[in-house]
Amino acid sequence: MFFGASAMKSRSFKITCWKWLYRHTRQLRWLVGLIWPLHTFPHRLALELELRRCEASWEQ
Q: How far is CA 10 from CA 2, 3, 35, 40, in A?
């Protein structure tokens, strides 16, 4: 009886843990999705400016 109850407790704990983990990884994914473009933006901007500078020098 005792073993059955402890196994059930452990099982429900694992399920709760997985739910918590799933919810937080979803939030983390959303956060990464938000931050990643901001992180790559300066690099992209630098490339864009460099390309424009090159184009301007080619046109002269």
A: 12, 10, 36, 43
Residues in contact with 35: Cβ distance below 8 Å, sequence separation at least 6, in sequence order: none
pLDDT digits (tens, 9 = 90+) for 9-58: 677 777 777 788 788 788 788 877 887 777 788 888 888 889 899 888 88
Kindly state the tokens that stand for 20. Answer: 């918590």
CA atoms within 13 A on the CB side of 42: 2
Nearest to 50 by CA among 36, 58, 60: 58
- H runs (alpha helix) in 1-60: 2-59
